[in-house]
Amino acid sequence: MSNKLFIYNSLSRKKEEFQPLNPPFVGIYVCGPTVYSNPHLGHARVNIVFDILFRYLKLDYKVRYVRNITDVGHLENEETGEGEDRIVKKARQEQLEPMEVVQKYMNTFHKSMHRLNILDPDIEPRASGHIIEQQEMVKVLLDNGYAYEVNGSVYFDMERYSKEHKYGILSGRVLEELKTNTRELEGQDEKRNSFDFALWKKASPEHIMQWPSPWSDGFPGWHLECSVMSMKYLGDPFDIHGGGMDLQFPHHECEIAQSTAATGRQPVKYWMHNNMITINGQKMARSLNNFITLDELFSGDHKLLEQAYSPMAIRFFILQAHYRSTLDFSNEALQAAQKGFERLMKAVEILGVLPVSDSSTVSVSELKDKCYKAMNDDLNTPVLISHLFVGVKMINSINDGKKKISADDLDDIKSLYNLFVYDVLGLEWVETDEKDDELTGKVIEALLSIRHEAKLNKDWTTSDRIRDELGALGIIIKDTKDGANWEKS
């Protein structure tokens, strides 16, 4: 990168110059999904934001990017740590083993991320694969006096922690406020205080996912996994911890508390948080039942959608807002993003056929400086995109013969657009016609509907013929208890 990068540190609440702890190495940890449902637009935003950070830092540093998979311990009530495990609940609803649920939705998550051209992390650890390490951290917290065991469960002692450390340094939620606003809930009598959070929970006999421990057969608390896995793969402390703004409290605040209590020091130098996607001014979330899955966006199959949107239109839509700003969903904004993306990519294509002159009447170096300046100012992708569109006007003017460019400057602008459009913003020009793909999908669904009716009528000849004909075209049909699914071979 050119010049110095400044990023907004949620911990200090100001922009700071990024200075790695151990250059040229940089460690990034981002909270990944709890895999019990299909990814939605909110998942796209957080992963695109930190994909941009990953891509940009890789220009100058050796980066290790860790993004976890939560496959145990995330209970329904995030603030109290009570309720049923989300994956166990989904397993019961779908009549599957919990790890079948994990694999199913981990696969859909990865598929959607790849369609959005999001790079894979270097390490993707799963909570269930680090049970021993989580138990070891619980032992350290007990030995240090920051945790207590009761009836086979272990809780973090917030009162003890607050006597020696300040709680709420990230979110601003102070302990006195928690005392005032938190009421004792039924079933929480064993905790010393209602705001203490679980490090290890004793499992009821019917609880499917449980492991032996010195305290009970049980499972780890949700917050514990990120402290353990980030420390294992990135060290203590490490450079950057990222995630959605909704994770600041309680998840990241609890991470800071338990890591500090275990090691005696702050675990992370820079905390970065992206803002939410809203719909009609309200946060888009599964809990509010106002979310749109990525598959629905790709297919257009949702009551709020006027059409299907390509993965790159969605990526471009997200990049047009600064990551710390809210981003309001609308069909108009997505349609404008699709047009803007196509206009930008067509200009990149034109670069390959531009005529050269002996001299230039355009300033490529000035455009380059502005692009770097935008990215170095807390990853300001909307300003970067605006500069790239100034360059689009320049490219079109050269193509129309109104301006001139030298061979050297043409090489420079080609390199500039390859760098920022492809390598940094992660945009790609997909040659396949998205509308044709959408139409193909609808035709297949129609044939499957006819096949379903044939099966109900015990017309096995028609049913088998549709299956075989689609199979010959490379479409694999999988019959499940919920109906038929299809995929390309």
Q: Descriptors for this entry?
A:
four-stranded parallel β-sheet, Rossmann fold, single chain, alpha/beta, about 500 residues, 16 helices, about 45% helix, about 15% strand, Isoleucyl-tRNA Synthetase, Domain 1
What is the strand and helix layout of this fold?
Elements: E1 6-9, E2 14-17, E3 25-30, H1 41-57, E4 62-67, E5 75-77, E6 82-85, H2 86-94, H3 98-115, H4 131-143, E7 147-150, E8 153-156, H5 158-164, H6 175-181, E9 198-202, E10 218-220, H7 222-234, E11 238-244, H8 248-263, E12 268-274, E13 277-279, E14 282-283, H9 294-299, H10 311-319, E15 327-328, H11 331-350, H12 364-376, H13 381-399, H14 407-424, H15 434-456, H16 460-472, E16 475-480, E17 483-488
Parallel strand pairs: 3-4, 3-11, 11-12, 13-15
Antiparallel strand pairs: 1-2, 5-6, 7-8, 8-9, 9-10, 13-14, 16-17
Helix pairs in contact: 1-10, 2-3, 4-7, 7-8, 10-11, 11-13, 12-13, 12-14, 15-16
Provide a concise account of the structure shown:
With 489 residues, this protein is α/β, with parallel strands linked by helices. The protein is 45% helix and 16% strand.
Describe the protein:
With 489 residues, this protein is α/β, with parallel strands linked by helices. The protein folds into 3 domains: 16-274, Rossmann fold; 278-424, Isoleucyl-tRNA Synthetase, Domain 1; 434-488, no CATH class. The chain contains 16 helices and 17 strands. The chain has a 4-stranded parallel sheet with strand order 4-3-11-12, sandwiched between helices. α11 packs across α13. The longest helix is centred in the C-terminal third of the chain and has 23 residues, at 434-456. The radius of gyration is 26 Å and the shape is flat.
